[in-house]
Write a structure and sequence with these properties.
Length: 71
């Protein structure tokens, strides 16, 4: 079991998340925390971002909040 909060709206995003986990470590990309992790789009879908592993970043709750406030 992965300590991730994953809410998937489509098969595309689920596959992208799996691709991401294969490519990168299962930890916050900022601090390395391995619990309470969230997938976040680097470029929001509303701004033309894609549902693929290259547009995802795995962050802890603290860094997800900070990241979202700057994008």
């Amino acid at each position: 079991n992965l300590p991730l909060k994953v809410i998937s709206r489509s098969t595309d995003i689920t596959n992208a998340k799996i691709d991401y986990l294969v490519k990168y470590e299962k930890e916050c990309r900022v601090c390395g925390k391995k619990e309470d992790l969230f997938f976040t789009h680097k470029k929001p879908l509303s701004k033309g971002g894609k549902n693929n592993a290259d547009n995802l970043i795995l962050l802890c709750e603290k860094h997800r909040s900070e990241y979202k406030s700057t994008n």
